[in-house]
Design brief:
- This protein is mainly α and 417 residues long.
- It contains 15 helices and three strands.
- It has helices at residues 2-20, 23-66, 70-73, 116-119, 122-126, 131-147, 150-157, 160-164, 170-203, 210-240, 244-274, 279-309, 326-381, 385-397, 401-416, and strands at 78-81, 101-104, 111-113.
- Helix 1 (2-20) packs across helix 9, helix 6 packs antiparallel against helix 11 and helix 11 packs antiparallel against helix 13 (326-381).
- It is elongated and about 120 Å long.
- The model has no long low-confidence stretch (mean pLDDT 81).
């Protein structure tokens, strides 16, 4: 009981210190400003993108419904707007990197167009200003600044010995401080988030369904679990070094490594470790296969045409068929031409069939290698809590690689059907 009482006293003390100083108003106002700016900007951007998507669909989908075959469908450019996840307001994920429009081809893969990176390279350098970024970078850094002087600061001020003299076990002291600091962060940021959601929703309505609201709640829970890690990390580091300044430097180095270096290194190492080719290399191999196939098909087709028309019976001249009229000779020629065309098509299909199988195997192999590279990259990036947090939030928001891959497969299946 004494240990539990000590834990509670330490936690309440940290919360009281946070609220009695400038910590609470500073963190609350900072969080409110960041959350509000992000939600206002991203809500406006969402409705703008949705309007563009609806315009694209109005123009092109009518033609898709009118086309009875892929040959009719392939006449002209057919583009379909990529569906926008409502929770992209919370986590943009890979949305800026992939195209907002799919151009469909009857005999090729869907092509992505009009990505945000094409319009604004700043996205590549700065990333998106969404709630995921605020939690992953800014609030994790705030958690570090709130905790770096917890133990080291008391040791420097000489109050740590007094705290330990009250029969508080060391483990209860640490867990109490972690709980107190984490509760302080939650009490300062969660009301700010709720207020920002309310204010932004009054200006522009949210496109959220009940499932989207549930996904948002799950994303917020994951975000605070992420902040809990950095709160605990800060308290643990403050027990390892004597000076608060030394603790802050060590924490900042660890924060940079966990938030930026390890996730980026995991993504960079995944390709050489997986040994997968780039998309350009795969496309180049596919083009070479088709080039060889068409060259072989045309060569054999020329031989068939030459052999077909070399037959004296197909010399449709008055000398060869003196009893036939000009119309009959023309009809005989047209019939022979159709027979030759059918023979050439069958020949080309027979010659191209092995190449089509090779291309299909090449695509399947590339897809397997890409899937392995993706799993490897995710595994390496998840060594860092920032990587695990980003992937989890993307999956909850429907803006991750898996959601995009599923849509890509559906479009390819639609083309095959």
């Amino acid at each position: 009981m004494a240990g539990q009482s000590g834990f509670r006293l330490v936690a309440e003390k940290e919360i009281a210190l946070f609220f009695s100083g400038y910590g609470f108003p500073a963190v609350f106002l900072l969080s409110l400003a960041l959350f509000s700016a992000s939600l206002f900007i991203r809500t406006a951007g969402y409705w703008e993108q949705r309007g563009e998507q609806e315009e694209i669909d109005r123009i092109h989908l009518a033609r898709c419904h009118q086309a009875a075959t892929w040959e009719e469908f392939s006449f002209g450019q057919k583009e379909i707007g990529r569906p926008i996840s409502a929770l992209s307001l919370v986590c943009g994920g890979i949305d800026p990197a992939v195209g907002r429009v799919f151009r469909l081809h009857p005999k090729g893969e869907p092509v992505m167009l009009a990505s945000f990176l094409d319009q604004s390279p700043a996205y590549a350098a700065l990333g998106e200003f969404d709630l995921a970024f605020i939690f992953r970078v800014i609030l994790s850094l705030v958690s570090i600044f709130l905790t770096y002087g917890t133990i080291a600061g008391e040791r420097e001020r000489g109050t740590l010995a007094l705290t330990l003299s009250h029969s508080v076990p060391r483990d209860r002291l640490l867990t109490g401080k972690i709980s107190g600091h984490f509760a302080s962060v939650v009490l300062a940021t969660l009301p700010a988030l709720l207020l920002a959601l309310l204010l932004a929703g009054l200006v522009r309505p949210y496109p959220f369904s009940p499932m989207d609201w549930a996904g948002l709640a799950a994303g917020v829970a994951v975000s605070y679990l992420y902040l809990f890690f950095f709160t605990g990390l800060g308290v643990m580091f403050t027990t390892l070094f004597r000076g608060a300044g030394t603790v802050l430097v060590a924490l900042l180095l660890a924060w940079v490594g966990l938030v930026f270096v390890i996730p980026a290194a995991g993504l960079a190492l995944s390709r050489p470790l997986a040994g997968s080719p780039s998309r350009a290399e795969s496309d180049s191999r596919e083009r070479l296969l088709w080039q060889d196939g068409y060259e072989a098909a045309f060569k054999k087709s020329d031989g068939i045409r030459e052999k077909f028309w070399a037959d004296p019976a197909r010399e449709f001249t008055p000398e060869r068929y003196p009893q036939a009229t000009a119309e009959e000779l023309a009809a005989m020629y047209d019939k022979a031409r159709q027979e030759c065309s059918a023979l050439v098509k069958r020949c080309q299909a027979e010659v191209l069939s092995p190449y089509e199988k090779k291309v299909a195997r090449l695509k399947a192999s590339y897809a397997r290698q890409q899937e392995y590279q993706l799993q490897l990259a995710r595994g390496l990036a998840r060594v860092s809590p920032a990587g695990a947090f980003s992937f989890a939030l993307q999956e909850l928001s429907g803006t991750g690689v898996r959601s995009f891959s599923l849509l890509y497969e559906q479009l390819s299946q639609h083309r095959d059907d």
